[in-house]
C-alpha cells in the first residue's frame, strides 16, 4: 500500500508542475510585449497585471531572508555573493561537514 501511495504522490507532484507550467505559458501568451517594450518594467507590469486580474498577486510587508552556509572562505564568499545579489551579504556561517 505504501508504494501505491508514493506513486499517487509522485503523480500529484507531476500534475502540479504541469499545471504551473501551463499557467506560466498562458501568462506569456496573454502578455507578449512589442519588441520596443522589452524591458524589465514592461515585463514586470505585464506579469503583475496578469496576476492581479486572477487575484493571485500578493504583497508582503517584510523582506525575505537568506541563510548562507559555507565550508571554507566565508569572507571571499561574502564578496562574491554580494556582487551577484547586488546587496551587502553578512553573517555567512562557516560550517564543517
Query: What is the H/E order?
Result: HHEHE
* Shape designation: elongated
Low-pLDDT residue spans: none
Average pLDDT? 76
Instruction: Return Rg in Å.
Output: 20 Å
Q: What portion of residues is helical?
A: 55-70%
**Intertermini distance:** 37 Å
Instruction: Note the beta-strand portion.
Output: under 5%
Task: Work out the oligomeric state of the chains in this entry.
Answer: single chain
Count every beta strand, where a strand is a DSSP E run of 2 or more residues: 2
List the total number of helices. Answer: 3
Spatial order of the strands in the main sheet?
Answer: 1-2
**How many domain regions?**
2
Largest sheet: 2 strands, parallel
Amino acid at each position: 500500500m505504501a508504494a501505491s501511495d508514493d506513486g499517487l504522490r509522485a503523480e500529484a507532484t507531476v500534475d502540479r508542475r504541469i499545471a504551473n507550467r501551463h499557467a506560466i505559458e498562458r501568462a506569456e501568451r496573454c502578455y507578449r510585449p512589442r519588441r520596443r517594450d522589452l524591458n524589465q518594467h514592461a515585463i514586470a507590469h505585464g506579469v503583475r497585471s496578469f496576476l492581479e486580474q486572477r487575484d493571485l498577486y500578493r504583497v508582503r510587508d517584510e523582506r525575505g531572508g537568506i541563510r548562507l552556509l559555507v565550508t571554507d572562505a566565508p569572507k571571499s564568499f561574502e564578496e562574491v555573493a554580494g556582487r551577484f545579489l547586488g546587496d551587502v551579504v553578512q553573517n555567512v556561517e562557516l560550517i564543517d561537514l
